[in-house]
């Protein structure tokens, strides 16, 4: 089985200290990519933040996916975008102008529909209880396994994944995992990621 990737999900509202300093730290860590998910920002605010984050990630040769604002992605001539499913449906012609697209899905139906948009991968979740999805029931391992059996594209697990839950994903045919809260709360980021990788493989 191939090495599973670790994708970081940003959360500027809960990051302790200076957010761009944390972004710099992430860009120098062993994560494989970042999704700049900052849905509380308007398009103008997101554009300004994205410019700085892309500059940092480019300097350190790391991939950053922009999120939600497909027009910002095009304006910055950026070729990595992660889309909520509904935006992908509503803006399919715009999204086709972007080279590499991921999508968030929450059901088998959304997975099947996503194929027509030629997405490169999908995030499925949330798998475990998560602080940002407190009112929603987690999808759990069994639903994730069913998605993996049916999927024609790489699947990343997302939601409540940390060093306590990661072992449940070890033997699954995942492309990788996404981590948010576990990363911004951890001071020893590189040590934490190294331990997670060992438990994942």
From TrEMBL:
It comes from Campylobacter volucris. SUPFAM superfamilies: Thiamin phosphate synthase. Pathway: Cofactor biosynthesis; thiamine diphosphate biosynthesis. This is Thiamine phosphate synthase. InterPro entries: Aldolase_TIM (IPR013785), ThiamineP_synth_sf (IPR036206), ThiamineP_synth_TenI (IPR022998). Keywords: Thiamine biosynthesis. The keyword Zinc does not apply. CDD domains: TMP_TenI. Pfam families: TMP-TENI. Residues 7-183 form the Thiamine phosphate synthase/TenI domain. GO terms for cellular component: cytoplasm. One of its GO terms (molecular function) is thiamine-phosphate diphosphorylase activity. One of its GO terms (biological process) is thiamine biosynthetic process. The keyword Transcription regulation does not apply.
